[in-house]
Amino acid sequence: MKFSGFKVLKEGLTGNKGWTPHWRDPVPKSEYDVVIIGGGGHGLATAFYLAKEHGITNVAVLEKGYIGGGNVGRNTTIVRANYGLPGNSEFYSHSLKLWETMEQDLNYNVMHSQRGIINLFHSDGARDAAARRGNAMINQGDDAVLMDRDAVRQMLPYLDYDNIRYPIYGGLYHPRGGTARHDAVAWGLARGADQRGVDLIQNCEVTGIDITGGKVTGVQTKRGPIRAKKVAMIAAGRSGQVAALAGMRLPIESHVLQAFVTEGLKPCIDTVITFGMGHFYISQSDKGGLVFGGDLDFYASYAARGNLPGAEHVVEAAMTLMPMIGKAKVLRSWGGIMDMSPDGSPIIDKTHIDGLFLNCGWCYGGFKAVPGSGSAMAYLMATGNPHPAAEKLRMDRFRTGIGLMDEEGTGSQHNLH
Ligand SMILES: Cc1cc2nc3c(=O)[nH]c(=O)nc-3n(C[C@H](O)[C@H](O)[C@H](O)COP(=O)(O)OP(=O)(O)OC[C@H]3O[C@@H](n4cnc5c(N)ncnc54)[C@H](O)[C@@H]3O)c2cc1C
Hints:
With 417 residues, the chain is an alpha/beta fold. It contains ten helices and 18 strands. Helix 2 packs parallel to helix 6, helix 2 crosses helix 9 and helix 3 (88-106) packs across helix 9. The protein is globular. 48% of the residues are buried.
């Protein structure tokens, strides 16, 4: 089924009877060339790019729950390439370029909206850091504009500029940043992978990883054993548990991150705003809800829900930055499980077990990484070599200390910053 304006019109006039399911519901085969554990954004994107770029289609994505039920459907949808450090900089730049062609690549409207993102700063020192980051972004080929207080005020007149603790000094603007519809990204990638022959197996929890003589041979699942030549662990917040099935202990802690959405309002915020000092960020969804969040709940957990102190911290920051938000009613809140790495940067790498690959450490920023991660992971699995944009995302940096990418300058425990 191909999407087009004509098809939408025709279905609208004929009772919408011609739409078919977006992907099949296949029975798992006994053997695949590649098994991917985790049907989130990264697992689906890996399957999609394995099929699209490398012609590897004898692939199964094994998902414990349902497609889109994990963080790929729980995030606040911000897409950006505003990283400063080598390693992250080229990787997120690569990812943003793939976002810009994703709708054509998938023939699917993922509502990617480059409405811009502005990171506020509140001191001279922070302005210097923003200028440095902006220069790094421009050197990488991405876009950045350093704005002074007046320019920010013209763009965002409703913020509190004279807050005694955090007066706004200006902002770093990234015009190509923005948002996308998270569910649509999962559905579009699932459909694209399925169309190319990938089997998407839902309700299929992986309970064991089979290893013989230092080589992976398959997985055990709640729907029976499946043999595989290569296995990828791409389980985001559950990465530690999945890797433990192969006897591995990862440098990952899982933490809860909450988000919130208000009732639908008339358009009032036409960009993404981040308030790093207060730990708050906000955008407006295409349905009108103000979508916002803040920091982690700061305790390790596998529960996909948050606690009230976290919620209180976020709404306090919201009121500090933009008091007008106090009039909006919060419709709902939710949580997701973050795979926090010690330096806040991800891992895309082989493991010491032949044929077993690892993709994790996305912290609270893995949605924007989805296409970059999928393409890099597929490249690594197909060729055995790291993708040029992901060469520095190696796991051994946590053993050797060489190549750590402490993007936010938070020290050795990013999860506690
Ligand atoms: C509240 C919130 C806000 C966020 N905001 C942003 C944002 O604005 N921008 C941004 O870039 N990022 C954001 N993120 C982070 C981003 O959502 C994640 O980093 C990213 O989605 C993680 O990758 P994924 O999509 O593959 O994860 P998931 O969708 O969680 O996929 C992992 C999948 O693995 C499955 N799985 C686990 N164990 C097993 C098993 N044993 N067998 C089979 N399957 C298994 C899970 O069921 C799950 O579906 C946010 C996250 C949250 C929670």
